Fold each of these.
Amino acid sequence: MDSTENDPDPSSGYGQAVSSNTIVMALSSPERLPADSRPHTRATSINIPTSPRTPRSNGAESRFRGHFSGPFSPGPFSGRSSGVFMTRPSQPPPPPPEKDMRPYFRSRRIKKGTIDRPELRAKDPRWIWMNIIPTVGILMGLSIIAVLSWTGYRSVVNHKYCLVFDDDFSNGIDSSIWQYEIQTGGYDNGEFEITTADPENVFIRDGQLVIRPTLQTEEYLQSTTVVNLTSAGTCTSNVPGDCILQVNNTAEDIVMPIKSGRLMTKNTAVIRYGRVEIEAKLAAGQWLLSQMIMMPAENYYGSWPASGEINIGIARGNNATYNGGNGNQRVQSNLYWGPDTTEEPWQYTSGTRDSLHSEYHEKFHTFGLEWTEDYIFVWVDQRLAQVFYTKFKPGGFWSLGKFPATYSNGSLIQNPWTGPGTGPATPFDRPFYLALGVGVGGTSGWFDDGVQGKPWSDKSTSPRLDFWKARDQWAPSWNESGSGEMVVRKVAMWQQCDNGATDLSAFNSKR
């Protein structure tokens, strides 16, 4: 057989050149072809004499190599070769049309009229209750909701309030509203400051009230062993311990190392039930304590805390990392009450509120109090931002406190909140006044021992001296920009003037 006549085009990819004169070619497996196209011969032997031939062009050779792949892939054409080309077997028949491969669909729907439905021919009269009962239930539920909503709305008492004062400090420190509170007793917290009327501690700047603590001099602390505010005629307390401080320098004790300021409305503006709003930036700086509180105008039920204390807001000056987030970004509000200082379960009436992505010294916030014969409610910036809410319940604070029958020494604990006029709100049913100040340190537990390098211990015999010796650690934080002072922009107070809120005739003045 002449190789030039039967040589297919290598570019088609179906031929292969070989160098042997005789080759047996295996055709495609019959199992892979349709039955009607299988070849009758499994192999073909072809004898081809070697003869020179003209090589194909480089383009053809490239096409040949590009199309052919597999184990018989040839190398490049040489100038002279002889070979055999394999012819592609017949192609399988095309697949059947797609529609022929789809499964046959038969509807399973029940045809109308093929099933007997006797319920449609004769309706059961009882079935009407299947509609009536749910409808009545829904209407009754809506009625109950409406009644409860209306009852709740009616139960909210909208009291009438009369303005006591509204001060923006544009006229300075108004003496008809404010008095300087001058004491050296530590304000029941064992604080380290003496509060003064010194203009370096309380002053007006840019139409705003500023309360800023300052340090005493080393010379003053070394030379002073007695501070007697009573003899000076300046003490605003009638408790001797708040007015006189005597120390022994040889016992490593000193008088108050800090001067600070505190304003109050005790002699001019007191309320029994009402509202208070304070716009302020609180003090930042280590061991500072911003205070917005209400104190009893008289200790009617006994000395602190028997006559109560309302903390509208107290905040530490330490930064936000202090003690797991108890720094200047958190304000705490609570009530102090109890038969004496050893039994004061204030934790039952306390709450906190964090400033959003900031600290309370960075911008002004509004601290609000609402106090009625039924509850005390404290909020920050808006009424929805509640700090704490305490409802006065039957049994009063004596029941809430769950006090033991006796002290640790065996003596009987007496209930101080009995007598004419008392009730669930006692001791928070008497007139209170407002006080604003900045405290420093203290031994009452506001600053936990061993936290953030606290330089004194609450049980130390010389906590003031320990604090003073570490002034190089904490004093720089008071001098940072925007720190070391509480700034008050506005204060307003309202007295509840309905429901006999100002009537104290039910109380017996002699206890």
Amino acid sequence: MKLADFKTYKLELFFFSILVILSYALFSGNDSGAGTESMNNYFWVPSAVMQSIAAVYAVFIAIFALSLQRNLDSIHSIANQLKPPLKIVSYTAVGSIYLNGLMLIIFSLHTPSGLKIELMLFTSLLSLVASLIAIVYLSMEMLSDVSGLKTSSEKYAHLSHLLLELESSDSSGQMELSSGDMELCVQALEDEKPEVRIAAIQLLGQLGSEQAADSLLQKLTDKNPRVREVAVEALGRVGDENTVVELIGCLEDKDKRLRLQAVRALSRLGDERVVDPLIKRLEDKAPEVQAAATEALGNLGSRNAVDALLKKLEETQTKGTPTELHIQVLTALGKIGDEKALDAILPGLDSPYPGVRKHSAYALGNLGDEKAVPHLIKMLADISPEVRNASAYALGNLGDRRAFTPLLRMLEEPDPELRITAVYALGNLRAPQAIDPLINMLEDDNPWVRKCAAEALGKSGDKRAIEVLVNKLNDIDPEVRRIAAGALGISSEYRD
């Protein structure tokens, strides 16, 4: 709560009560008379405090006047806005001056005890501190409110609010900032608090504003490592030619977290120039950077990275226990889809580790080489359900009708996930003999299986599917009804 939010009548009562108590405490229990000369050593303290408070109070009044002068058009409303802090500061200054004035009177007329002298001097200095805090704090607050300046805390709160609005926006990140908010965001990049700079960078990155790229590039040399990381991430969203060059430079940074963010950012930008620098990161000292570089090369889909990935695959195979990196290399090779990776991936189907067999099957499905079909059909009998599922999915991607009979047997699997994948794969074969089995799957007790069967029949374009799909418009599951309606539309497109 701000000091200016206090009710003024409460402040008046508070200061009045304090002054009465202090007046009584200072005048009670003092000896009058001859000891006055010994008090001369202490006169300067309350006197100096009074002068200091008076001087600082004069500065506050000057700030008050300046605030009014900056808003001549709305002088009345601004004056009302500034009255509460003016009262608080005035009460504090007057109370402190009154207290120190009493001390001067006491030191002139009485000889307090040593303990009381120390207490009075401490109280005098405390009153000075209280006055300074009130005046400085409320002066900054006053100028902030009137001139539109914001403290670091206010900037952070405002930027955080904008981030929340952006995340909850239905426009999927297309929200536009007002000119004032954009100006504040850019200014906040130079704030002394790192959390404010981070919030501003995140907001600019989420907005994807290319106009902010130059400002974000400057944050790559920020003294705070977390700010640099967030700046790299944001630049990956903004993206332009200059951004790529700067981010490639970040791949050589000593901080592994910054290198990791740079790899991820370059992956988003999708520029062909980043392939060779990312290939070098396959030998990075940090395993997480190697893994991120592997994933990035797979996402980029450049065939120039195949040889380096095949070499990395060979290295990881010699280590015995499969690592996450080994699986990611398999996945990356599958995404790129170069047929020369076939011979390197096939041995993974014989691995003793289900995870390697599964990802090898997925990779073979993505390669699109029909030479993998017999090997994948064999894997439909694997002991691991995950491997069988991956193999069926891969065969569906390849669309080779040699897989029809093995996939047909898979429709009897007790696991609904396996039946769903088998339905998907059979639908992709576009084999006329698959229509009747798919029609039968419309009566499966699992709604997800029925949905996939309806979609597969819609893609087939076979006239036999129309009548059963019409019947599924009355299915008990609303999603099945929706898919059936969509499938009928798809079926019509194929017939046309």
Amino acid sequence: MALTKINGKKVHYILQEAQTNKEAETLVLIHANAVDLRAFDPLLHYLGDRHHILRYDLRGFGKSDNDQPISALTIGHFIMDLQELLDTLKINSPHIIGWQMGALIGAGFASLYPNKVKSLTIMSMPCHPPHMIESIRSHRKELSGGKREIPFEYLEAMASTLPKGHPELAKLKEYANHIEFDLYAKVMDLTVSADPIKDIKNLHCPTLILSGSKEVLFPPHYLRLHTIHLRHCRLVMIPNASSLIVLDQPKGIAQLINDFISEPVEPPPISDPFIRSVDESMLDYVSQIQSEWLHKLEANKQLQIDILQQFQVFIEGDQIVNGWNKRFAKPLLAYLTINRSTTRDHICEALWPHSPIQQAKANLRVYLSYLRQLLTIPGSDHSFLVMDGAHVYLQGEVKCDAVAFMEKIQEAQHETSVETKQDLIDQLLNNLPRRLFEPLDIDWFLQLKTQIEEDLIDLVLWNANRYKKQKDYLTAIRQLKKTVLVAPSIDLYECLIDLFGKAGNEEQAIIWHSRMLEYDRK
């Protein structure tokens, strides 16, 4: 057992060294939602001592610190923690083995750092169709029955094939009792809300996907659909196992992992040309079927929504000009664009928080019906807007300039490499729009706009300090001037004035000081 401090934060880990080979490869085990690193104890017995094995407590779990507000946590924080721990321990190119939340962290890490992972094993990977996410989130939140405690009895009954009262389940309850409920609830919400498909498709390393044959909490169907044609992925169903797969079948899983990581990265070529062609042709055929099916599922339709500089909507390249200034169509579509899958209750709470809920829902029925007509492809009955009972979502290929902009901001925020972060911010500012968002006088929208502006300003100030250290004052000034026109703030003005002073341009420093005072008076 060891504790290390990374950026002032305590991280608890156990590094078990191989007994026979000091040059052995390292396995990194990342635990699931309601446990800590001890949950891997049954697996260790069967993994043997041929490899170095690193286990660690996720932030806030076990004996590891969490230095962020729980409400602000993202999967990106956990991915960054893994990267910092591996760097601290000087572990290069490990085999990563993740379970539930740990699977999401492992896939995200392998996608971000493809050269730092030798192989990836993901167990009980959460992966749900986008239109089902809101209902699943609501279900998980209701499991505690209003109590601030982890629903252990439910997990014991639904997440494992072990008999009630089994010693391993008793240990699980002990681990769960030491987890702060708010942290558990946040991590569970991150888990069921995640969409790991993009990460998995981006992977370059061999990937083993393990799911229990009796899995009900994180069914593998959607994940299997998207990975069946990927050469780097292999999905194996574990007999008589459920979500707590490591506890249910540790021996079988250990054997699969040992066999998987022992295989060569590049399998030997198939010597028989006919058999080789059959293999390749069959995979191509399956890939084609899968692509065509997804193509049809998405209706092969495109919806482009622009809300950054001005509000515009295009269906299959044709602009829909009229009808947006009636029946809350514009703010309603903006909300659905940012929140691709939501519920009627959430829409009412966000857009009309001060209206009686029944009246808001009655109005919403009318507004959604009208918006559905606007988003119906001319000459067909296909609409991009789907109303499935309480759930509302946009289907098909939906693109939005604001969503793309927000994703670029988040990518730069989560980047841990200083050089790469600077490059990402440069790219963001090179394509900075002339204004942020079409004006919409809705509290939810104004809060979103404020948050994005604050995130942008933080990144620009970070970049300016980088260029200041590099004595590249002109680049920092150019980026600050560009940003202050879009998202003015006292911090940006003060940084500009300081940089003009550093550059020896006192005249411009005085001019921008006057502009700051004028802005401050408004």
